[in-house]
Write a structure and sequence with these properties.
The protein has eight helices and three strands. By secondary structure, the protein is mainly α. It folds into three domains: about 90 residues, no CATH class; about 70 residues, Monooxygenase; about 40 residues.
Length: about 240
């Protein structure tokens, strides 16, 4: 929506209007599906965020730039705002890169998406460069960079296949001969923490005490019964 507003303030940027109009339709479909299937709590939080960012945030930008700026200054201000938000969009995949490096698995980073991101960033970079519009060109340099990094990581970790433990349902990433669990469920995380605590703290102490008992404990000998009946001698007359 910001890019459409920016395009309306500029000239010869019809492509910005068409592509971002299509993007609004696709994103609206995504949001509708999410709100339909999301839990009630997540749905309410998402609706609050949508109202805050789209209606309040975008509305304030339009109102303030219309009344407090004029002419070319208005386009410059909106362009800088678009540039900042575009940089935030391209920085968002850093979480995916961190997940890939941590798990050494590209399960959540499909190669086609990375290629599309890179090609799109390259095309928009040259489009902005030819128009002399650096608000379009600069953010896409970051998109191109992250796209290249994603493809490099994909080819590094593409042979590491994640498997699922049938008993626990925990995702396990195979790296050579080693198997590293990828904990997603909080219950699985709690079980893993408890298991690690038992192995590190409790089991060594129990084993040490058991070993000490085996070496030092003596088997008690049976003691005679102290409560014996007294000996009574009965004299029998001849």
């Amino acid at each position: 929506m910001l890019w459409i507003y920016y395009a309306m303030l500029k000239t010869n940027v019809l492509l910005l209007i068409t592509i971002n109009s299509f993007g609004i339709v696709i994103e609206t479909v995504y949001i509708v599906f999410f709100l339909f299937y999301a839990p009630k709590k997540a749905r309410m939080e998402s609706l609050k965020l949508i109202i805050l960012l789209i209606f309040v945030g975008f509305g304030l930008i339009v109102v303030l730039t219309q009344f407090l700026a004029s002419g070319a200054t208005r386009g410059v201000i909106v362009g800088w705002i678009c540039l900042v938000f575009s940089l935030c969009v391209f920085v968002a995949p850093l979480g995916v890169l961190r997940q890939v490096i941590k798990t050494k698995s590209v399960e959540y980073m499909p190669i086609l998406l990375s290629v599309a991101l890179t090609l799109s960033a390259v095309m928009w970079f040259f489009y902005g460069l030819l128009l002399g519009d650096f608000n379009i060109a600069i953010p896409n340099t970051l998109g191109f960079t992250f796209g290249i990094i994603q493809m490099i990581l994909y080819f590094i970790y593409k042979n590491n296949k994640p498997i699922t433990n049938e008993k626990t349902g925990v995702m396990i990433t195979e790296i050579g001969d080693q198997k590293i669990p990828e904990l997603k469920d909080q219950k699985a995380i709690d079980v893993a923490k408890l298991n690690a605590f038992l192995q590190a703290e409790i089991l060594p102490v129990v084993a040490k005490q058991a070993q000490k008992f085996d070496h030092n404990a003596a088997i008690p000998e049976p003691q005679a019964d102290l409560r014996r009946m007294p000996n009574h001698t009965i004299d029998v007359g001849a």
